## 1
Amino acid sequence: MVRIGIAASLMFAGSAGAVLAQAGPVRGDAAVATSGQASGPDFLARPFGAVRPLSSGIRLSGPPVQGALLRGKVPTGVVALDLDGVKVPLAEDGEFLLGFHRDAPTLGVLTVNFADGTVMAEPLAIEPRSWRREFIAIAARGGVPSEAFMARRKPELEMIAAARLRASDSTGWRQPFIWPATGRVSGIFGSQRVYAGEPGAFHSGVDVAGPTGTPIVAPADGVVILAAPTPFSLEGNLLMIDHGMGLNSAFLHLSSIDVKDGERVRQGQQIGRIGATGRATGPHLHWSMKWNDARIDPQNLVPAMSALGK
Ligand SMILES: [Zn+2]
């Protein structure tokens, strides 16, 4: 446990070396906290008492793992929280979400601000995951994108960025998530192709194959933050839904979008249909999720597809 004053914490935050040097006594606690069950589909339902609290009194629903999303609760008296300098939104009851990017460093630091001005730095050991890699002998196709492509792409990226800034008051983040579509999982989160030694971008979501026109439902309550008016060059018909607390979902390649921008949706409500619009080799749903800027694995939030008999 490291309980430090504000002045000390500023020094602390300013020097990665100091964090590592002082992390020693705390890492033991972190290790205990991370030795619980692996994160699973019931992460939202798991009682907090099942996992040992961190030194600060914060409780987490599971171990920090790359690509995972955890639910947590701060003890009374905590007024603000950040993970590696990124503000963690806190609900009125002290609950919050904590997501770990696919390539998150194996040591994170939670900075915990108490009402009395005390600041604690709580190191978190983040378990690495081994991601599927496919090695391709030839160089990637493409090369430098054309001016025409960039001219079309720029406003698309701006719309996506603007959508992500639209935080809603949705409480969908508190629900156990359901699959937006069921079927064969044809692509998994985090996988990556390496072309002649050059790694390509990792796969940012999970793919579910299905015939064009198959209904897609909202995996949890939320607010529509983007319903692409025309198909985007890569994503095709793109729909984005905010679930609150920095958590959002994107649904790509749809053949139709059945909800409107700003609309509140309920878990299980039809929001669109599977398609192959944009860059897709066949009809499937690509479902990706972000918590703040962290890309997380949607399969962490839902039951195994095999458990559904699919
Ligand atoms: Zn995909």
## 2
Amino acid sequence: MPQFGWEHFGDFDDLGAPDGECELCGTSIRYVFPVYHSKWGTMEVGEVCCDHLTSSDYASNQIKHQARRTRFVFSPRWSAGKSGTTSITQKGVALSIVPDGSSYKLRMNGRHGKLRFGSVLEAKIKAFDLIDSGIVGAYLLKVKLRLDHRHWERAYD
Ligand SMILES: [Zn+2]
């Protein structure tokens, strides 16, 4: 079996309990990472072996990300507001999950998103990924700069 040159592919699987078995070391695993090597094919391994085979910290980062996301989703910092809205401030972003008919939308720093979600949980998970990846921060900064610029222009009209 090749020791180097493996790649991870697709999403890892969370079994919810250590019910899986790493195909490399035989350890019981909860998080199953699919890996691929052109000279070997595919295997399903745990995060330690995935990092080892891919010479990266991809798998352990994924696990950390998932743990932080779970803490965020179930955080006591969420506060319930009017008409079923639930809000939190995360990394400087004022985030609300706003019910809209039978679905939910995100509101960040007062701006409504276009995405719709079937459940509050889904909306929270997506919001975490957007904020955590820095996508939202960059977007809001751009909006703010544009607004500032407009104010600046207006001042010199
Ligand atoms: Zn293993």
